[in-house]
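Exercise 7. Predict the joint structure of the components listed below.
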Amino acid sequence: MSTSALQAARLILARDLRLALRKRGQFVQPLAFFAIVTTLFPLSISPELARLREISSGVLWVAALLASLLALEFLFRDDAHDGTLEQYALSGQSLTWLIFAKTTAHWLLTGVPLAVMAPLAGLSLGVPYAAVLGIIVPIALGTLVLSLIGAIGAALTLGVRRSGVLLTLLTLPLAMPVLIFGAQATDLAIRGASFAAPLYLLSAMAVLGVTLAPLAASAAVRISLE
Amino acid sequence: MNEFLHMGGYARFVWPSYALTLAIVVLNIIWARRSLARARADARRRLLRSGANP
Amino acid sequence: MAWTWFHRLASPPHVYALATRLTPWFAWPAAALILAGLYAGLVLAPPDYQQGDGFRIIYVHAPSAWMSLMVYVTMATAAAVGLIWRMKIAHAAAASCAPIGASFTVAALVTGSLWGRPMWGTYWEWDPRLTSELILLFLYLGYMALRSAIDDVQRADRASALLAVVGVVNVPIIHYSVLWWNSLHQAPSVMKLAKPEMPAAMLIPLLMMLAGFTFFFVALLLVRLRGEILRRERSASWIREALTG
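Solution:
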């Protein structure tokens, strides 16, 4: 009885989520990082909420971006270490689907919590309550795209010593469109305007990412495992 | 001649631009040739080593 | 029959010899075109109506920007060929492109900034084209960093090749994102870093410089390619002849 690609993907997703529950500490780190970084800005600029509100979109997005990049390091790390990733590649199952499952699990564990936490940080930066949706939805979408793109970089740098900074250097240029449109969406929301346009573009990027990124990432994994 | 060097007042932008680009052109020539020379030296060394141990 | 030349391209000794022979055929025309273009651009071309003699920076800025983009596309194409047909030569070509492209991206950024200074009043204006060039520089640096981080040459080749292909797909996306971003926050003055409609006396030197730099790139690529081929070749026989020849 052979497992379909979708079934295998679901199994991997469930596995990754279960394993993550046992290593909760690892997933709190990016959130703590996000909280600390957003605190740096009022401390370094000004406690005036009016001034902070001006830059709040940028601050939230840059912090979310950096926190997600931090979290990318452990997307493949453990599985590469104990040979599980190799088993995935040799299993005869579609590696693309398996990687898509892993990336989705990663996003659920880091991107979504970031998206939920961001409004709190935003409120501390003077963001009006009405803008909360304009923070959660774009950041949730943006971190999804980032996890997808970052998976490619993470796969390429498997086993490279001190890959953290290299991963950041590789992923950030590719992630700049996400930053541009995501921050624009949040900024519009903060000003009370409709953020539909950049949100659509962000969604388009997410669709593109979902279809193409796992393919590239699975090719990258195979290259790294050779 | 002086008018030429003066570049209508833009001299301090025009000439550094040209100087920098020229420097990068020259740098690329040196760099490429050095890269080839190093590769040839390494290949020669490898040959000698493998030649010495038949 | 038409494929034999393609298959011969996969043979390292053949390509090495070909590269050695062809280099002067690109190097000398490059020198001629660039020198002639410089003379035509600096001396013969009339000053611009708006920018006076300051516009002459275009004769070094536009070729640099052209190089930065053209070399990246060449690098990505070579990378794709290397990945699809598993040709070491293609990977060698891609590796050769990176330092050339990166250095001219720096040239484009600095000359663009110097050109902008008299027009904008500042050395940097987050102009969409310069911002895209900056991101392109990061793409180059990332490519070179990935290559140097992986010890195994074959894995480094293939990993950086994938990165180059992913990057090239992103270049238009990045460019339009930056363009859109910049249009929202309209800069106070519109910078004519793009090539406007030019009279022939101004255009011809530009074309000469563009052509000259392109030939220069090919010459540089051929020189570097030889070194990269040597680095990837283990078998001794043809190398012995190539080194003594």
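Discussion. Chain B has one domain: 2-52.
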